[in-house]
Amino acid sequence: ATLANEVTVNKDWWWLVQLGKCQHRLDMLRDSEKHYLLSLEIQPMVDTYLYLAKIYLRLDQPLLSISKLQEGLEKFPYEPFLLQAIARIYEGLNDMTQSADNYRQVLKLNNINIEAIACIAANHFYNDQPEISLNFYRRLLQMGVTTA
């Protein structure tokens, strides 16, 4: 990947992402971040925003991760994977209202997203609204999910 990137003189976004992936696996997080940012300058892609968010989470910077994902949402406004990643981060930060709001937005874009339905159902259950959560769990069972 390094040789291919040298041949293209840092102009091919795909090779920059591949270099970032390699460095991510080697725990060279700052170098990986640099390659992902260069790739985004050349060609914004949803996957690159998700990889960059993972880097910032590994660096224990969840708010920066959220801001990069929201930057990706500005370029790709109807992308459920970006919204789902933001919801997961808020869930990790124990901000369940923001998490549930983002999962609801995911359901508006993709109404059969199992993770979003299950998380909203669990949120209603733990907020003492078992009747509402039962509707969501019933929906999962109707979809054929047996392990939610």
UniProtKB/TrEMBL annotation:
Q: What GO cellular-component annotations does this UniProt entry give? A: BBSome; ciliary basal body; non-motile cilium
Q: Which InterPro entries does the UniProt entry name for this protein?
A: BBS8, TPR-like_helical_dom_sf, TPR_rpt
What's any GO biological process attached to this entry? non-motile cilium assembly
What SMART domains does the record tag this protein with? TPR
Q: Which PANTHER family match?
A: TETRATRICOPEPTIDE REPEAT PROTEIN 8 (PTHR44177)
Name of protein = Tetratricopeptide repeat protein
User: Which organism was this protein described from?
Assistant: Rotaria magnacalcarata
